[in-house]
């Protein structure tokens, strides 16, 4: 990962990571800035199905942002 955080840490941490990532998100939201490293991503292609030889059957996914999407959803549920 560009920021030095291993995807393995995010996978192993799972749900236990949410409070820490939510706190980080809270700081980011309050400051109105995004860490520079977060503007970069390691993107992997995820196969959607059908013919694996067609590029249109893949979608790009950033693993860090996929995890943050979950954290942001949890954050918004807490705030609402």
Strand arrangement in the largest pleated sheet: 1-2
The percent range for strand residues is: 5-15%
Number of domains: 1
Low-pLDDT regions:
none
Helix share bin: 40-55%
Strand and helix order: HHEEH
Helix-strand blueprint:
Elements: H1 7-13, H2 18-31, E1 43-47, E2 58-62, H3 63-79
Antiparallel strand pairs: 1-2
Helix pairs in contact: 2-3
Outline of the structure:
The protein has 80 residues and is an alpha+beta fold.
What keyword list fits this structure?
elongated; two-stranded antiparallel sheet; 80 residues; 2 strands
Describe the protein in words.
This protein has one domain (7-79). It has 80 residues and is of the alpha+beta class. The chain is built from three helices and two strands; from the N terminus they run ααββα. The mean pLDDT is 78. A two-stranded antiparallel sheet has the order 1-2.
